[in-house]
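Entry for the shared binder. Reason: the reviewer on the internal report wants the predicted structure included alongside the sequence.
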Amino acid sequence: MKHRRAENVPTAGSKLAHHSMRPSRARTRRCGLRVLLVEDNEDHVMLVRGVLERKGHTVTAVFGLRPAMTALAKQECDVVALDYQLPDTTGLEVLDKIRRRDPALPVVMVTASGSEQVAVDALKQGASDYVVKAPGYERELARALELSVERARAEAAEAALRAELERRARTDSLTGLLNREEMERLLKREIQRADGRHRVFCFVLADVDLFKSINDAHGHAVGDAVLCHIARVLRRSIRSSDSVARWGGDEFALFLPGTGRSGANAFAKRLSGLVSELAPACCAEIVSPVTLSVGVVCVPEVASDLAVVLKWADTALYAAKAAGRNNAKVLVVREAAEAGAEQNRSPRPDQARMERSGGED
């Protein structure tokens, strides 16, 4: 195996990664790196330290496994230069422990001439690069360390951007809640998981009462503040296993896995009370207490598809609105479907077997 030069190591292939590396390179050279040098030879430490410090980098040198792990625990570093031959172990063992502790920390393995298999094993085990310990290797090592950090920073920036784009695709830009598409995906997944397992869950639609009048009277900025206020109330009112989304406009949706009929009634009543008691702090003087109409569908057994759940949740919400707003209606899919089948037509809210919870007609 020929000596693979550090500067020829392929970097992230996308244009995004290429552009992301430019500021990283400037920052690396301007501010310097914190290098942990794990070695077995004091003369080699002096060689490498001299080159790195002339480049503006800070070097901490240790000898062996335990000092290396102690140094990593006590102080942060940007990159590790790891010699394969150590007083108490091999560099591969140290590399394994570093990877277990910090999978993203760049590590450059330094191998003796002719140890191609060590280099291959190091790369397979997660090393960023390797350098053969030959005359003048200290300059090659410095370049490999710098490029490894640049590559790691570019990859981290690209990963952060991907995560942010994915987050934006799942969430509502105004409230920060999940968006409708993500909530529908959660429901579909739960329905598939429930197939044949009799998993219960509830789906909730909540609509802000007379929201148009708030916008008309006070403007859309106040209306947006009201929606954000309700989003915060809803987020605080659910368990960690629950999910809440902005369904669209002034409607919100909640998914409550493992919640049956009694839990649905209690939640609907508590939700109406929470929102009506709290006025948005930013506009409490000009906006009357906000109220919600809440429709809850309880699914006590396997639901055939998403459309069934959404249909009955919408039916329950319509019934809550028709009953005078600021209240909640809870229905059970099986019972509502049976009532509709008896009439041989699409059920109206007054034909489905419902349970009223909270508020006033």
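Summary line for the report: Residues 6-169 form a domain with the Rossmann fold fold (CATH 3.40.50.2300).
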